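ARCHIVE CARD
Drawer: 12
Card no.: 0347
Subject: one protein chain, sequence and derived structure
Cross-reference: see card 0346
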Amino acid sequence: MNSLRIALLTHSVNPRGGVVHTLELATALTALGHDVTVFAPAVPGETLFRLPPCRVVYAPITLSQSGTVAMVEARIDAFRQTLMEHDAWSFDVLHAQDSISGNALADLRAQGLIRGFMRTVHHLDHFDDPRLAAWQRRAYEDAEQVLCVSDTWTHEMHSTFGIAAVTVPNGVDIARFTPDEDAHDAHIKRCLGIDGGPLVLSVGGIEARKNTLALLEAFALVLRTLPGAQLVIAGGASLLDHDAYARGVLKRAAELGLSIGPDESVVVTGPLEDAAMPALFRSADVLSMVSLREGFGLVVLEALASGTPVVASAIAPFTEYLDDTTCYWANPADVGSIATALLHALSDNGGRIDFDGAVPVLLARFSWAASARRHVDVYRQLLATRALAIY
């Protein structure tokens, strides 16, 4: 079949789940022989945290006001202008991975400048600001086709919003994430102040959605049994404002007597270089993924591919693809349940997880090559539907 000319649009240059998805998908689509361009908004001097093997176009951001609404509007404007400068109409597929780029494409579609666009919903957020809420809604309502990375969100889009979405899962790069240590691992541990005690890792920064406060409370209970343990909270490059929640978490840490910093009981890294993540996954004794809401939870697969046991929330979407042989379950609303699951994983060195059988089977189900092929199938279905509509 003929190759497709595909534009993938992502909201940021920083290492967030949706951005990682975009870059991995771009890499896999390029490997299949398609002509892919990644569009991302950026202020002068910014570049993507990882460059894919395809064309990258940065949409210059002009921000004149502060605040989340102004930031989102500036990125929508940047996308809209840059897409027109690069002949948006000439792409076979315009695929938005977020609400920001989705609104730029919705604007172009409303003006008759493009035929339409596709949108992947990773998850939806709650916004008190009516303009942010309206932008989020418009980005999926105005799309020709909505994709979701889990059946959980596909069902949610249909039952709650009446959107006929299609599930196209994430993948995992098992060449990048492996259990095999290298010299970089020790360097990362030294730089972060990880001193060799049992290490609990959380990825995604300090956010209410990530349930960081409950994890902190649970970790304080873990320390009663394992006083040398450390909690590493990695990442956190988000466009949304989580400062108030983060201040509350840090205040609670002080109340619990938890010291924060390198070589302390809690290490908060902030955003990390992309090259550090495989080493960090391997260095952990357990990954805690006790989120209250996720689209898929890609870091779960990355941890398992690294040979690291996982404690996961016993809720969808995790229950779609994990079971008792691939994770330890915790009730994310119960601090005691989280602590118990972490202690079980640490005390038996992840022995309950079947790294020889169930984990390889699980990882084989989720490859980026398979995800790319499924995307292409959906792209071609959309193009065929458009062609039929002409006649």
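Annotation on reverse: The longest helix spans residues 368-390. The longest strand covers residues 35-42.
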